């Protein structure tokens, strides 16, 4: 969560830019709740999200989290 915590400390102008990046693609609330998990992933060796069995699992998790918000 260290990277996410650094983003949260930015001034309001930069916070607006962060919001624009996350707005439609990946809600900030979900990014916040998944920050520990996201930052622990190795992006170089992680499977592609658009293929294989990971996609249904991620989609299900995102729907669960979205419904809890």
UniProtKB/TrEMBL annotation:
GO terms for molecular function: DNA-binding transcription factor activity. Residues 2-46 form the STAT transcription factor protein interaction domain. Pfam families: STAT_int. Keywords: SH2 domain. One of its GO terms (biological process) is signal transduction. This is STAT transcription factor protein interaction domain-containing protein. It comes from Myripristis murdjan (pinecone soldierfish).
